[in-house]
């Protein structure tokens, strides 16, 4: 999910030229986005990309909660990714404002605001820049019983290790709006990661009104009998494609689960699925060691040991620092995941 | 922004920067430079600077090379040969050239991500910089670092997190003091970075332990799209060390910067840290994705180019004093163009790092059998 991984998708062409490995260009072919189906109960819908959905959620949050304030670096001008465009004009500079370049200050200031009962929506430009504020999130936010919402653009495992925080990653515009509103209205500090690659590439109908999607609940996107595929954010789309390919090529039926909330995660949905299929592959872009997949795998072996037909597999990013020239090779792409499906059904 | 640099200069005595006298027209000349604004200092850098012909030619060449290299990098980015981040130094050349020429290769430098000019002046070739930007094995970080991660001997990069390099600089200076080797560390950060808390933690430590560190705030008027006035309660960055003495120098005048750095090096070795604010200007946008014109006017950029450009103004001074002839400078321009063009061609033709390199550089001197997991947990590969 880190922006670094995501950039590589945009760079597929460049790689073709420079590395002359058509295989990898193929591997990096961008995500096939499958739009959500919206229930008729939601009424009117609007076509939106993820940026617009986030903007819309922030708009609703500010209009329904007079105590809500939105701030961060360049937020009043619309933010570097344009998620907060026009909000300053609509709600005034007292509620939507720029901060100096000071991440620890931004988060800590937000905690102070939230402690007084207001809703603080703090934006951190890129996930990489959240770390100066790590201490405030771990030692202050997580230990206050407050609703604060930090929304930013990437890595999750670090934060999933902090009891008292909620960590959420949407797979598209419809989910983003509902989950972001849930985060803003939750009584606990939430970190909302936005998959940058989907900002403009994921477009779908989004309910125009005010709605929330519950936190801590995974969603079964595809039902299947042979293998459970678990992911979140952009990787969900990779897994969906893998499921289709597995069906076509190997006649294997995969169940695809979008975790949606990383902490606290929905053990029940996962366990029920694995009990049914007996096989499980977990996939994320972040490095494999000590990643979210490790935690899920441990729980599965604990709860589903006797149902398992094969060891749980993890298809994740490499355990290497991020190398400038090799962006593309980082990805646990559909080919790697498909290979894993083949292995897991032929285990033993 | 003009207001800042403009104000910075208005506050100083008028920069005459005029020919004062030449002892021998062909070997050296003395120049008057603007007086620095001082904070908690009784005496500041001299207002006259003597410069030899050779030095003048050298500074001119160094600034031109950086300018040309950055223009080339910008074009390579536009033609999609360079991807990812790319922050250009154009407009700020006098800062790194002036400073480097008052320190020795044994002194240290650490800066943020606007590092190409510094990498070059600290000893990386134009080819090493350009190849790194394009992601080639011959790049100064073997193509694995890119724009923000360039290093050389006694040059510690190249840091992407705004402000994070400042405490590191204090640590480097601590070692120099501990070794008592007479060297110093120049620790650079931007006007935007000046609002990060850790900068002030570093100031306190450096003052407490009297570290030989010159903290340099390269004030180019903007932190991304935010002008200094909108980001800082006090834009007098040279005073923001509070108890730390400071000075503001005209960062567009290579000789002024050189003299201020000479003064500062001498000062920090005797007394402990000093803060220099270098009043300069960034011509390009923040990075290549920023056209750099939505938060400032084109006229503003044009005016700096016309009235305060570090290269043009230096050239003028050299001509006025007859220290260097127009032809000599033209010759340098041609040489520089040739060098950069050749480096560019070479860099484009070079090959990228082999795939196995991806697994390397995780640990220094890993155990002989150290392997890393790949995406697929059962495949392990050797890491060097
Ligand atoms: C901790 C952190 N926050 C935000 C950023 C994004 N960012 C990169 S450069 C920059 C502006 C810095 O401005 P300044 O310190 O003035 O340096 P300049 O770019 O002008 O050289 C910002 C906000 C970052 N790299 N690191
Ligand atoms: Mg700046």
TrEMBL record, chain A:
Catalysis performed (reactions): N(6)-[(R)-lipoyl]-L-lysyl-[protein] + 3-methyl-2-oxobutanoate + H(+) = N(6)-[(R)-S(8)-2-methylpropanoyldihydrolipoyl]-L-lysyl-[protein] + CO2
Principal EC category: oxidoreductase
Membrane-spanning intervals of the chain: none
InterPro entries: THDP-binding (IPR029061), Transketo_C/PFOR_II (IPR009014), Transketolase-like_Pyr-bd (IPR005475), Transketolase_C (IPR033248)
Domain of life: Eukaryota
Domain spans labelled Transketolase-like pyrimidine-binding: 48-201
EC numbers: 1.2.4.4
Cofactor(s) this protein requires: thiamine diphosphate
Keywords linked to the UniProt accession: Oxidoreductase
Pfam families named among the record's database cross-references: Transket_pyr (PF02779), Transketolase_C (PF02780)
GO molecular function, one term: branched-chain 2-oxo acid dehydrogenase activity
The protein, known as: 3-methyl-2-oxobutanoate dehydrogenase (2-methylpropanoyl-transferring)
SMART domains xref list: Transket_pyr
Hydrolase listed as a keyword: no
GO BP annotation list: branched-chain amino acid catabolic process; response to nutrient
Classification via Gene3D superfamilies: 3.40.50.920, 3.40.50.970
Lineage, top ranks: Eukaryota, Metazoa, Spiralia, Lophotrochozoa, Mollusca
UniProtKB/TrEMBL annotation, chain B:
CDD domains: TPP_E1_PDC_ADC_BCADC
Primary role: The pyruvate dehydrogenase complex catalyzes the overall conversion of pyruvate to acetyl-CoA and CO(2).
Cofactor(s) listed in the protein's UniProt record: thiamine diphosphate
This protein's name: Pyruvate dehydrogenase E1 component subunit alpha
Classification via NCBIfam families: PDH_E1_alph_y
InterPro entries from the UniProt entry: DH_E1, PDH_E1_Alpha_Subunit, Pyrv_DH_E1_asu_subgrp-y, THDP-binding
A GO molecular-function descriptor: pyruvate dehydrogenase (acetyl-transferring) activity
Swiss-Prot/TrEMBL GO biological process terms: pyruvate decarboxylation to acetyl-CoA
Annotated keywords: Oxidoreductase, Pyruvate, Thiamine pyrophosphate, Transit peptide
Top EC group: oxidoreductase
Catalytic activity: N(6)-[(R)-lipoyl]-L-lysyl-[protein] + pyruvate + H(+) = N(6)-[(R)-S(8)-acetyldihydrolipoyl]-L-lysyl-[protein] + CO2
Domain Dehydrogenase E1 component: start-end pairs: 61-349
EC number: 1.2.4.1
């Amino acid at each position: 999910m880190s922006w670094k991984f995501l950039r590589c998708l945009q760079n597929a062409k460049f790689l073709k030229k420079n590395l002359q490995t058509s295989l990898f260009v193929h591997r990096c072919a961008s995500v096939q986005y499958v739009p959500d189906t919206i229930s008729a109960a939601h009424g009117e819908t609007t076509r939106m990309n993820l940026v617009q959905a986030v903007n819309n959620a922030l708009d609703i949050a500010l209009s329904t909660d007079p105590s809500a304030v939105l701030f961060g670096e360049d937020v009043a001008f619309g933010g570097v990714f344009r998620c907060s465009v026009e909000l300053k004009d609509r709600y005034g500079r007292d509620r939507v404002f720029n901060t100096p370049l000071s991440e620890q200050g931004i988060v800590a200031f937000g905690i102070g605001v939230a402690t007084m009962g207001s809703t603080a929506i703090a934006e951190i430009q890129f996930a990489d820049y959240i770390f100066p504020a790590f201490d405030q999130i771990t030692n202050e936010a997580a230990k206050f019983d407050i609703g604060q919402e930090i929304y930013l653009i990437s890595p999750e495992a670090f934060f999933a290790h902090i009891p008292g925080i909620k960590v959420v990653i949407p797979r598209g515009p419809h989910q983003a709006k509902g989950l972001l509103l849930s985060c803003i209205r939750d009584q606990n500090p939430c970190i909302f990661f936005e998959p940058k690659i989907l900002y403009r590439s994921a477009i779908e109908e989004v309910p125009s009104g005010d709605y929330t999607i519950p936190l801590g609940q995974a969603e079964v996107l595809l039902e299947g009998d042979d293998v459970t595929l678990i992911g979140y954010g952009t990787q969900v789309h990779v897994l969906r494609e893998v499921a289709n390919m597995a069906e076509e090529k190997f006649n294997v039926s995969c169940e695809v689960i979008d975790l949606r909330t990383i902490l606290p995660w929905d053990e029940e949905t996962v366990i029920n699925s694995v009990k049914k299929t007996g096989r499980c592959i977990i996939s994320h872009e972040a490095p494999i060691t000590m990643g979210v997949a490790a935690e899920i795998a441990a729980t599965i072996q604990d709860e589903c040991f006797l149902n398992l037909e094969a060891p749980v597999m993890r298809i994740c990013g490499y355990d290497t620092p991020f190398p400038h020239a090799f962006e593309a090779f980082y990805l646990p792409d559909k080919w790697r995941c498909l290979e894993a499906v083949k292995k897991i059904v032929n285990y033993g | 922004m003009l207001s800042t640099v403009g104000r910075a200069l208005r506050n100083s005595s008028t920069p005459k920067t005029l020919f004062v006298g030449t002892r021998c027209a062909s070997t050296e000349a003395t120049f008057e430079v603007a007086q620095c604004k001082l904070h908690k200092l009784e005496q500041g850098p001299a207002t006259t600077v003597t410069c030899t012909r050779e030095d003048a030619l050298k500074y001119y060449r160094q600034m031109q090379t950086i300018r040309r290299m950055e223009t080339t990098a910008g074009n390579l980015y536009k033609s999609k040969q360079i991807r990812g981040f790319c922050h250009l130094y154009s407009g700020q050349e006098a800062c790194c050239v002036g400073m480097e020429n008052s320190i020795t290769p044994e002194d240290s430098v650490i800066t943020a991500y606007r590092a190409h000019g510094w990498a070059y002046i600290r000893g990386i070739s134009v080819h090493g910089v350009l190849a790194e930007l394009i992601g080639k094995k011959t790049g100064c970080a073997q193509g694995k670092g890119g724009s923000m991660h360039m290093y050389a001997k006694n040059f510690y990069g190249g840091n992407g997190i705004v402000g994070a390099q400042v405490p590191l600089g204090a640590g480097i200076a601590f070692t120099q003091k501990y070794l008592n080797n007479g060297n110093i560390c120049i620790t650079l950060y931007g006007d935007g970075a000046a609002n990060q808390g850790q900068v002030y933690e570093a100031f306190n430590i450096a003052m407490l332990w009297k570290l030989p560190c010159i903290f340099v705030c390269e004030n180019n008027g903007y932190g991304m799209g935010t002008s200094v006035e909108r980001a800082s309660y006090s834009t007098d960055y040279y005073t923001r060390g509070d108890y730390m003495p400071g000075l503001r120098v005209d960062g567009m005048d290579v000789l002024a910067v050189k003299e201020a750095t000479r003064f500062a090096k001498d000062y920090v070795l005797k007394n402990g840290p000093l803060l220099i604010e270098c009043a300069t200007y960034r011509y390009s946008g923040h990075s290549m994705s920023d056209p750099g014109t939505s938060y400032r006017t084109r006229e503003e950029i044009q005016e700096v180019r016309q009235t305060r450009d570090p290269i043009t103004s230096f050239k003028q001074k050299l001509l006025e004093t007859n220290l260097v002839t127009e032809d000599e400078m033209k010759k340098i321009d041609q040489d520089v163009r040739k060098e950069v063009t050749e480096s560019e061609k070479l860099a484009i033709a070079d090959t990228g790092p082999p795939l196995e390199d991806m697994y390397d550089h995780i640990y220094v001197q890993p155990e002989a059998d150290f392997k890393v997991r790949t995406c697929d947990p059962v495949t392990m590969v050797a890491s060097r």
